[in-house]
């Protein structure tokens, strides 16, 4: 028990340090007070796990087995005062101010913290499994910046943003035992009386990591006779570059339901904190196709920075398709723009084979995203 307490103490201190480095004390080592404009706007809590799809598609606890992510976003068109000048200056440039002084984009910023967990298919094998993916965890914190173009034809502040979003997310963190993936899985499995994992001694070793992610979304809506949009389509593209994941991706989403004013929710790997318009009372279904072109995945191909924990015969597949189906409930509970509403969504993902080995390609993989957002 003493070892576990020491680990959680060290991990907690590291997590706080990461959070501070990425969103609290960038400038001069001392946080500057944020003004009223930069007050908190939204909270976004995402949880992903294959146990959520276990009842539908069978076995869980394999490959990508768990992930969580928490965003804390700020009011639109605000850059928090605690950011250093070089960083706040770069974010301000995202407005693309024209010679007449008008902004081309509205911007939004936020902080993020999260963890990802990966395991082989068989949790009971204590020895290395060179024909399956590595054990590993990724603990990280970061900052996110998003911009949305103004629609100059609209006079109303609530309607002035076009249905288009660009998002950048910069994360720093660690892999290996300090990521907490092993301890978290052991605690959860002990509490749920599940199979205890035996192979964490073979996990990806401890090393720092840096990831930059980008996403661009554009929507086309089809208003009905009541003026509301009950059917829409959106296209997306983006990618990531860093020490852990390197890929490009693209695809489209279709939604059907009531009052489709917001941006459709997404998975943890896609950066997103904003919405096209303010949250409204809504209920809708969505379907999405995403195609990913993969260059490198540390938890399949091994580390870019150091020797792997054991010999592996895997390689990432270059093309990985993913189908997503889900439902969303939105609630608008306040006309105050600072506290607009809440949203709950459940997304079911069916991801194509991610790797190949001498034994053949991996099977289709299933997991789910549970997303709760409030005070949007």
List keywords for this structure.
single chain, 376 residues, mainly beta, Lipocalin, 12-stranded antiparallel beta barrel, 3-stranded antiparallel beta sheet, 15 strands, globular, disordered N terminus
Structural notes for this entry:
The two termini are 40 Å apart. The radius of gyration is 21 Å and the shape is globular. Residues 1-34 and 155-159 have low confidence and may be disordered. Helices cover 13% and strands 44% of the residues. It is built from five helices and 15 strands. The protein has 376 residues and is mostly beta strands. The strands form two sheets. A twelve-stranded antiparallel barrel has the order 1-2-3-4-5-6-7-8-9-11-12-15. Strands 10-13-14 form a three-stranded antiparallel β-sheet, with no helix packed on it. It has a single domain (2-29, 43-374), classed as Outer membrane protein (Lipocalin, Beta Barrel).
């Amino acid at each position: 028990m003493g070892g576990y307490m020491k680990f959680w103490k060290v991990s907690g201190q590291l997590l706080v340090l990461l959070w501070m480095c990425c969103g609290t004390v960038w400038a001069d080592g001392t946080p500057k007070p944020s003004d009223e404009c930069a007050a908190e706007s939204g909270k976004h809590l995402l949880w992903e796990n294959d146990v959520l799809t276990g009842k539908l598609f069978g076995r869980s606890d394999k490959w990508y087995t768990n992930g969580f992510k928490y965003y804390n976003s700020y009011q639109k068109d605000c850059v928090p005062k605690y950011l250093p000048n070089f960083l706040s200056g770069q974010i301000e440039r995202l407005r693309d101010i024209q010679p007449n002084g008008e902004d081309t984009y509205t911007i939004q910023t936020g902080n993020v913290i999260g963890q990802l967990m990966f395991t082989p298919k068989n949790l009971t094998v204590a020895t290395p499994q060179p024909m399956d993916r590595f054990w590993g965890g990724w603990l990280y914190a970061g900052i996110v910046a998003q911009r949305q173009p103004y629609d100059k034809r609209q006079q109303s502040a609530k309607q002035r943003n076009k249905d288009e979003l660009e998002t950048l997310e910069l994360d720093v963190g660690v892999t290996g035992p300090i990521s907490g993936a092993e301890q978290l899985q052991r605690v959860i499995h002990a509490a749920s009386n599940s199979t205890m994992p035996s192979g964490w001694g073979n996990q990806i070793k401890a090393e720092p990591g840096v990831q930059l992610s980008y996403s661009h979304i554009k929507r086309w809506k089809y208003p009905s006779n009541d003026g509301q949009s009950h059917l829409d389509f959106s296209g997306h593209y983006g990618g990531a570059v860093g020490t852990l994941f390197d890929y490009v991706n693209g695809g489209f989403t279709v939604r059907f339901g009531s009052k489709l004013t917001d941006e459709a929710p997404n998975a943890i790997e896609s950066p997103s904190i904003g919405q096209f318009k303010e949250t409204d009372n809504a209920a809708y279904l969505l379907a999405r196709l995403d195609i990913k072109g993969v260059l490198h995945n540390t938890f399949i191909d091994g580390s870019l920075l150091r020797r792997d924990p054991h010999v592996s015969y895997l390689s990432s597949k270059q093309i990985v398709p993913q189908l997503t189906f889900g439902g969303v409930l939105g609630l608008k509970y306040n006309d105050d723009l600072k506290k607009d509403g809440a949203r709950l969504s459940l997304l079911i993902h069916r991801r194509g084979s991610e790797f190949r080995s001498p034994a053949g390609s991996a099977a289709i993989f299933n997991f789910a995203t549970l997303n709760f957002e409030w005070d949007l």
